[in-house]
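TICKET: design request
STATUS: open
ATTACHED STRUCTURE:
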């Protein structure tokens, strides 16, 4: 299981990656998977579930935009209300 934070652009994804990395949170950028966005648009930041609370605290404090947060297991994604 892992967490994906969905954003609209590669620029936003790289900004979030830099922010999270500066907080000691391991993250990676990937294209939004088909099972989240059927159009294939957007990018996601992948993090471990144990880092979700710290990551969201940093993101909200920074004011950086994001579309949605998903908990992913296999090819199933559940949208979290964050």
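STATUS: resolved
RESOLUTION: sequence designed for all positions
ATTACHED SEQUENCE:
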């Amino acid at each position: 299981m892992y967490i994906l934070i969905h954003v609209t652009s590669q620029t936003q994804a790289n900004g979030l990656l830099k922010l999270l990395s500066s907080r000691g949170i391991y993250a990676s950028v990937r294209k939004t998977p088909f099972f989240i966005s059927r159009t294939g648009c957007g990018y996601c930041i992948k993090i471990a579930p144990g880092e979700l609370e710290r990551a969201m605290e940093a993101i909200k404090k920074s004011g950086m935009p994001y579309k949605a947060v998903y908990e992913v297991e296999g090819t199933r994604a559940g949208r979290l209300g964050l």
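CLOSING REMARK: The longest strand covers residues 2-7. The chain is about 30% helix and 30% strand.
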